[in-house]
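dumping this here before i forget
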Amino acid sequence: MENFFRLSHIEFVFDMFRSAFGGIEWFVVAYLFCIAVFFIIGRQSLNLAFVYPDAFMAVTIFNPFVIVPLSEVIGLTTRMRRLFWLLPVNLVLSYAFTGICMTPPRKSYLSVPPKTTHVQEAYNILHRSMAAGCCVLFIALFGSSALPHLHVPQNLCKADDTVVQISELIEEDAAANGLFKKALYANENLLELRQYNPSILGMLRRSDMTEWSLNDRSQENIDRIIRSYHQPHILALVSRFGIRIDEAAFIETTQRCRIDYIIQEKEMELGDYYVSTGYELIGEIGEFEIYHRTTADE
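structure:
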């Protein structure tokens, strides 16, 4: 029993409390004050929503003589501060601040009571403005600024460096030449390009890159695919399978789809084919060659 009622349990829970709410202690004080006000007001809705749940947590998960021995058994000791995140501090303060700002005053700020609805409305606006100003002042005085810790993410999707460099090259080239940022590529790794830079459109879908198969590579079957006018499959013949289809058919399809950029693996050695169909090499990044449509063929 002595081991159960130890003062060290209280000290431990208090340390966890400070770890969870370090730097925003005044917000917690305001939160407890609001809970007390809700209880004094005695509204059943407020008690059910805020007071009673906090009272239940106080005698269970925030009771040092219960939670500390239990946490030692289940291995929660090092993470106990997360329990304090269950307290709806922000929700209660938001509710209280909104109530303060939106509740109309019962009495006039002036000694003479208002005689018209216009004057009463002006009083209401004045009250709400002053209440909102007090709330903002409280937040500014006792809150902590997030600006020193604010950093604009440069690579939010954690894309591969190759994808980032290809994106930057196409962005720079498109701005300089006024080209449409739509690219033909069939490498699955480049699917990240859509996530990293949605402004660069991809011609082939994931299914065209992975699911569509070409078991029959006879000239008859290739001609059948070209005659089908299925544009993704026609372009996949070249980009994915490295088949040098009739140049006129490739040019017609790329112009119809407005493909101004091609990203191709070097090992497929299609550079001369792309040049002869109206494209120009603008850079090599990693295992890829990047081509853009020449101005003369736009």
